[in-house]
Amino acid sequence: MVAEQLIPRGIKDPKVLEVFHKVDRDKFIPEASRNCAYADYPLSIGENQTISQPFIVALMTECLGLSGNEKVLEIGTGSGYQAAILAELAKEVYSIERYDVLAKKAIDALKSFCYTNIHIKVADGTLGWPEEAPFDRIIVTAASPVVPGPLLEQLKDKGKLILPLGGSFSQVLTLIEKKGGNLGYTDICACVFVPLVGRYSS
């Protein structure tokens, strides 16, 4: 996966590559699809949700530029795989999942890794996690035509937020950087994610 999918496509951060060697992706995949755990495409995890292809997970992670001291908010726990990757690279990870059944499965999958810096709750992710704000980094793993206002409010100055911006048929992975109250937008690449559902997703 690392040699054939990540490095050839430009993932360069050695810390990110090392973590992808370390975290077993197959532990986050439903048993029926486990033989495809390292394949170069998204996989269904139930509730009409997916685990993103390895390259996209790596790309979004690399774009955050984590040094190990950050407090990260993840919107869309899903399988728990992205949270595990983030937990290896950041200080604390706060992850919100809309579907209770997926949150429970993610918590079960994460148990074998013994992480103490991942915090998961079931809620509307577009509201963020105000009790724990502000955050150094925010990652949204579902597509929205707009950036939810509460997430921008909960992002620290000099913080970074990455998400797929767009509708069902046209999305662009976008990195947003907050500096002195101003927001800078950088288009990363075209992408396809399931829609973000919540009060501030449209």
What does this structure look like?
By secondary structure, the chain is an alpha/beta fold. The protein has a domain of 136 residues: Rossmann fold, CATH 3.40.50. The protein has 6 helices and 9 strands; from the N terminus they run ααββαβαβαββαβββ. It has a 7-stranded mixed β-sheet with strand order 5-4-3-6-7-8-9. The longest helix is centred in the middle third of the chain and has 12 residues. The N and C termini lie far apart (35 Å). The mean pLDDT is 95.
Q: Which helices and strands, and how do they pair?
A:
Layout: H1 2-6, H2 14-22, E1 43-46, E2 49-51, H3 54-64, E3 71-75, H4 81-89, E4 92-97, H5 100-111, E5 118-122, E6 135-140, H6 149-154, E7 155-166, E8 171-179, E9 182-191
Parallel strand pairs: 3-4, 3-6, 4-5, 6-7
Antiparallel strand pairs: 1-2, 7-8, 8-9
